[in-house]
Amino acid sequence: MTGALTAMVSTAAVTEPQPRDQALTLAMGVPVALAVMAVGSALAPYRVAADVVFVLLIFAAIHIRWRGPRAATLGIFAFQLFFVTQFVETRVEQLPRLFLAVLVAFGSSALIRFAVLRSPPGRTLARVRRAFGLRLVLVLDALVEVAEAGWEAPRAERAVGDLRRHTARLHTAAMMIQNQLGTGTPDERTAGAIQRRVAEAETGVERLAILVLRVLWPGTDVDTLTPHLPKVRPTGSAVDARDATTLPVLISELRALRTVIGPGPLRPTGPDPTEVHDRLLSYRSDERLPDASPALQDVFRSVGDLARALFGLRLAVDGQTPAVQDIPEAAQSPEGLKAQNPGLANDAMPTRQRPRLRPTTRTALQVATGSALAIVGGELLSPERWYWAVFTCWVVFISTTSTGEILLRGYRRLIGTVAGVVAGLALAALMGDAPWLAFALAGLSVFGMYYTIAVSYTLMSFFVTTMIGMLYTLLHALTPGLLVVRIEETALGIACGLTAALLVLPVRTRERTDQLLRDVLERLRAALSQSLTQLGGEPGGDPLGPARALDSALDSLRLSVQPLITPFSPLRARRRTALCVLGLLETAAFHTRSLAATAELVPSGLRVGADPRLVNEVCRIDRNLATLISQVAVRSEDGTTLVRGPGMPTQLGVSEGGVHAEDINATRRALRHLQRVDASIQGLARTLHLPVRHDS
After folding, report:
1. Sign of the torsion formed by the C-alpha atoms of 436, 442, 446 and 451
2. Residue 654 has pLDDT above 60, yes or no
């Protein structure tokens, strides 16, 4: 039992991306595990001393996390191995065999990690890229279904629902690629090329989907595919006659675009993929556009943009230099936006004062206090199974910060535990005296536990409890009363953890969400500043970096507001507000990401940075964001208002010599994205009850 639990912990707790770092962490974990095993076995007869040491060890294991992932992993080793000594009730005379079991466990973990299922960063990135390609295929398949369904509900609504879901999963795959670029690519040049092309493909397919929906549902303002805004329903009006005759051509081209990706990841198929690719690309320069409405012609241009992005992504994945060099350089204009407003980019991400207390110290104090309460309550409830309450108190604090997150995680764990108890008793009754079957089911439960941990915490808790039921079946100690104690100790551990979170340096859910909202707004301001500097012709870094940082901050906010947006939340008004804020921020993030991907396509022939209308609008948006950030920080109603300007220019002047049609289209697209960001900011202000006035 000790060897199996140690192998499970040593396999799952090591999270460094590089194999060398993983090996070093495993090597350092061996002496830590042996020492903790010896201390836990020696203190087992002395209950009070063992409890005091356990609480101190819990505090240390959480507190050292600020030193990095290796320290966090070693802390997990220390906690889990001490827990194992209490769970299995080890003794000093058993230490030689226990040490051997621990060594075998670490050895088996290393064998699986570095030999049997070896996964270096480059291979992991390749697999994530393949997943991204397959999800692109699913989005395009859903888009074809939407186009075929037309405007007829409810088939159209179901198709759009699938489209939203596949688009959200595509964004998740794009963020997974972003997280792997630093370790899975040979150099920064390749990482930048892949990042740029993935962003272009992601934003291109989402923009294409939005444009198709606007054509199919005339008069309906479809601006985003985010699932957190109220669903847009078909208006019931049909497209005009010209567009109706062109829709079959569009569906055919969408299928052709699907062949650019092919059944494999990003590989063209068919008898003549070059001809298909050239035809799709021609739409970017307004060639071969059908006789249709301007809206539908925009759809065909977007098809060409997406084809270019997919071809560029294939080049970047293959490591070919055109993926880095085929983007026109921005104009080097001294009249750029940064010159017009030097403060635009410099103060976009203000330096925050470091808190006097580290977050890990706060969490360590909370977990240690909750664990002490759980030990006392667990001993009173069941002197033999008190450690279940302590373990539950530990896990409800993992990846949580606010009291609302802890409450939600505790609720989900309790539901999963109750379901696992029922399943464990049922399986034990069906198996009878069949230890090998119980062993196999225990292994399947371990697999299910880690397979579902990123999908559903309730399912993970279900498999944990089922595994415990199988383990006690192997020990011939499983009784209904034992599993009832499991439920009671779990509920006690949740209550102790929540009590500690409320009493010891509490972090309210609103405080946490406000902090993350400010972070998202600051990153939105920084990403806009970088993109607009690029549009203005000033040299600078890659605008996609700040845009992806904005996506990461938004992911953190999305997790933090889960207690507010859960369907079981009794605070219905706060739930509606949180959903609206999330939807507006996701819309702004999409258009900011699209603006970053488009900014590099705007050539020097367009005097973007010199146009005074754009300069004025950009400065106004920046001031509005600064006002919004300050108001979220202080939560005051001092009469501060945001300003609505005269509107973004739809096109800008062209210098002598002219430019190509695709360059003008790229500029217009950038201006539309900026306009949508402005509208999202104003909508966010109104949702947060900040007045918006017209510019006088």
Report:
1. positive
2. no
The kind and range of the H/E element at 400 are: none
Dihedral angle computed from the Cα positions of residues 591, 596, 598 and 604, in that order, rounded to the nearest 10 degrees:
140
Residue 381 — pLDDT band, cuts 50, 70, 90?
A: very high
Contacts of 90 (CB under 8 A, 6+ apart): 2, 37, 40, 41, 44, 84, 98
Least confident stretch, 257-266, 303-312, 542-551, 680-689: 257-266
Residues paired with residue 693 on neighbouring β-strands, in sequence order: 643
Coil, helix or strand at residue 696: coil
428 phi and psi, to 5 degrees? -65, -40
To the nearest 10 degrees (0 to 180), the angle between helices 403-431 and 480-503 is: 170
- pTM for the full model? 0.85
Nearest Cα residue to 375 out of 363, 385, 366, 365: 385
The mean predicted confidence, pLDDT, of the chain is 83
Question: Residue 337's pLDDT is what?
Answer: 36
Mind listing the pLDDT tens digit for each residue in 445-466?
999 999 998 889 999 999 999 9
Residue 218's nearest CA partner among 200, 237, 198, 241 is 237
Contacts of 658 (CB under 8 A, 6+ apart): 605
Nearest alpha-carbon partner for 299 in 222, 237, 209, 223: 209
- Per DSSP, the three-state class of 654 is strand
* Termini Cα distance of the chain: 75
Element at 52 (helix H, strand E)? helix 47-63
How many CA atoms lie within 13 Å of 144's alpha carbon, on the beta-carbon side? 16
The kind and range of the H/E element at 455 are: none
Q: CA–CA separation, 446 vs 75, rounded Å? A: 22
Helix (H) or strand (E) holding 115: none
Residue predicted with more confidence, 48 or 333: 48
Spatial distance between the Cα atoms of 61 and 73, rounded to a whole number of angstroms: 9
Which pairs from 340-347 meet CB under 8 Å and 24+ separation? 340/536, 340/609, 340/615, 340/619, 341/615, 341/618, 341/619, 341/622, 344/529, 344/532, 344/533, 344/618, 344/619, 344/622, 345/526, 345/529, 345/530, 345/533, 345/540
pLDDT (tens digit per residue) in 485-496: 999 999 999 999
Beta bridge partners of 606: 654
Which of the listed ranges 224-233, 245-254, 657-666 does the model predict with the highest average pLDDT? 245-254
Decide: 106 and 30 in contact? Cβ < 8 Å: yes
Q: How far is CA 15 from CA 208, 445, 561, in A?
A: 37, 22, 26
pLDDT of residue 674: 87
Residue 659 has pLDDT above 80, yes or no: no
3-state helix/strand/coil string of 558-596: HHHCHHHHCCCCCCHHHHHHHHHHHHHHHHHHHHHHHHH
One-letter amino acid identity for 539? Answer: P
Mean pLDDT calculated for residue range 386-401: 91
Burial profile 329-354: b = 16 or more Cβ within 10 angstroms, e = fewer:
ebbebebbbbbbbeebbeebbeeeee
DSSP for residue 187 = S
- Give ∠ CA 131-598-122 in degrees, rounded to 5: 30
Alpha helices in 382-505 (DSSP H): 387-395, 403-431, 435-451, 457-474, 480-503
